[in-house]
Amino acid sequence: MVTQPQLNQISYPESDGKPMADNTKQFRWIVVIEQNLEWLFADDPNVFVAGDLLWYPVEGNNRLCTAPDAMVVFGRPKGDRGSYLQWKEDHIPPQVVFEILSPGNTVREMNRKLLFYSTYGVEEYYLYDPDQNRLEGWCRSEDPLLDQIESIDGWISPRLGIRFELGEELQLYRPDGVPFFSFAQINQMLDQERQRTELERQRAEQSEQRAEEERQRAEQERQRAAEMERLLQQYRDRYGELDR
Predict the structure, then answer these.
(1) For the whole model, what pTM was predicted?
(2) Which of 72, 82, 107, 124 lies deepest, with the highest CB count within 10 Å?
């Protein structure tokens, strides 16, 4: 039996020595999914989202771990972590995990991951192969193990509310219908927004200039009218008697 002092002395590495991704395509998909999930739950302080973070489900066993490409944990606060030690997180496992397949992943490795997620409490598991544009998913029902989702195209995640669509490549949609964006797309939209804002600023500035010019013209007209009134009054003062 492992005593509590011995448990406290066990080290849980924060890295498995493996790269986050094997190629740019896999890395891009990991970042897109993880960052868009963070954006989706940005206003909820009790949803923790992470990418490539080692998850240890059992205290005392530092060899039993895996690092999902992206994971979502409901009921845990946001914040930085070196690893996800489940016994320090109210024993709450990640409910949703994502894996992006790369050519270096073997069938045996992915089967082990499926068994791991099924055994340790994951409710939804999604596996995407960007090279083959193939998406697979598993969802926990009444069965103690994860069941494969038979029709994944158009599937809506029970936990996340996001929708999966398979076209030329995978497209994910938020519950409000907004698609997941890449950083390049977000930067493009930001540039367009900045250009639109600058255009509106210039239009407002031009409008202010026109308004100022109109104000100055009106002031000049007022001054001319006042001058004419003054001259007319002088005329009346000087020649009023003659007019009568």
Answers:
(1) 0.74
(2) 72
pLDDT digits (tens, 9 = 90+) for 131-174: 999 999 999 987 778 999 999 999 999 999 999 999 999 999 99
Token output for 99: 């894996």
For the chain, the structural domain boundaries read 4-180, 182-244
* Structure tokens that stand for 160 in this block: 């996340």
4-180 — its CATH code? 3.90.1570.10
Q: How far apart are CA 133 and CA 151, in angstroms?
A: 15
**8 A C-beta contact, residue 99 and residue 68:** yes
Would you mind telling me the total number of residues written for the chain in this entry?
A: 244
Residue 241: helix, strand or coil by DSSP?
helix
User: What would the DSSP string read from start to end of 163-186?
Assistant: EEEESSSEEEE-TTSPBP--HHHH
